[in-house]
Amino acid sequence: MSEVGILGGGLTGLTLCSLLENGEILERESECGGLCRSISEDGFTFDCGGSHIIFSRDRNALNFMLSKLKDNVVKCRRNTKIIYKGRLVKYPFENGLADLPLRENFECVASFLAARVKSRLLNALRFHCDGGAKSLHAWLLANFGRGIASKYLIPYNEKIWKISAKEMSASWVDGRVPKPPLRDVLRASLGFNTEGYTHQLNFYYPKRGGIAALIRSLERECKGRIVCDFEVKAIWRENGKWFVSNGEECRKYDKIVATIPVFSIVHSLQRGGESVPASVLRAVNALVFNSLATVMLGLEGVAEEKMSNISWLYIPDADCLPHRVAFPSNYSREVAPEGKTAVLAEITCRDTTKMSDEEIIERTVNDLHRKKILRKEDVCFAKVMRTSPAYIVYDMNYEHNVSVVREYLQRKGIILAGRFAKFEYMNMDACVRNAMEVARMLKERC
Ligand SMILES: Cc1cc2nc3c(=O)[nH]c(=O)nc-3n(C[C@H](O)[C@H](O)[C@H](O)COP(=O)(O)OP(=O)(O)OC[C@H]3O[C@@H](n4cnc5c(N)ncnc54)[C@H](O)[C@@H]3O)c2cc1C
Question: Which residues line ligand 1 (CB under 6 A)?
Fold first, then answer.
């Protein structure tokens, strides 16, 4: 009997298992990886849970991931753009103001200055300007000014989150969306080169195998302790032990760490005979998330010339299905056959999209052709994959609902780790850090 049952074999579950000697993973799918899965077909490799890169401010988490890849890694410098009215604007938008028409550049910089002055004045009067900004809409206006917010940040955020920025909480943005220094914005507006979001300016990517190369390496360290095709359906506690069942087979543990979505944990407890309070069921059922469709395209030759060294593109325009398009073969030449290009387009949807795979491909290819991102006659490979859940949506009730559910699961003695169990906007580095913390805590308790 393994002492620690780890529910879910994504990056969090695998990292945790690799750090424990007595852990066992139960994974629903026939392979591990979760959002960090990749497929290789016709010489192309795509990250099917969306484009992934490795970066972090946390040296420890970054070194952990890089050490798993050994020499199978490339270091890249970000060259990312936003498509705005047909122009390529440097990313982040506030660092690319000189790429806008002069009048729009002025509107952005003038309203940015006005927002900063207002915020300083309110702070001096002891009102917290963005502290008072409860909605994402208000936070973006307070921190970036009307120009930058209305031209790019609000439309892009509404496109990816599928919710009005007025109905979204600002609680997730602090620290995640950096507030740019005034000096940088002024310099960017005049055409000086400035960089924002600098902890992601240089990033890493596996040379071969896509982001799943990291998963494969962790899997090797957990050999013999991974049970695939095991969907956790019921969880219960009896005589001081935890029991986990997939409906056919039952496994027994001293402790469990859940990395599967929080609603699956609550519903599994219910199926295990637990009478979950109505307030917890209401809260868990009210949590909002988005699903993702990834459109994986292979191109003969290079994409449009101006795309030949782009890392990824943000597309706020409502008339284009994908919100983001990445060019993984611009990070590593080994993820596409010689002379071909790999393109990965991402589309969010609330739950699963009603469009068929064929419709999604057709719309995506036509939209990207019209936006001059690729030529549709060059497409030699096309495939769609869907992932759910993919993004946590911080609506106005998020804080309340998530704290009700977490408190309940903590009382039950279930340890939560990772993006969907904690139901938090966590990137890979945060998942690794979280798994390290849980491993330390479990070892200390022994
Ligand atoms: C589009 C997109 C792009 C991203 N890009 C980046 C990036 O560039 N850099 C970065 O650092 N992060 C990125 N992230 C975030 C990153 O993918 C996540 O932080 C990380 O993969 C989460 O890992 P996890 O193990 O917590 O969750 P998951 O990957 O969701 O793993 C959970 C696992 O549990 C399994 N499971 C679910 N239900 C059950 C069940 N009932 N029984 C058994 N098993 C179950 C799933 O199959 C899955 O394998 C991105 C995320 C998205 C959506």
Answer: 7-13, 26-29, 32, 34-36, 50-53, 231-232, 259-261, 264, 292, 346, 390-391, 418-420, 426-429, 431
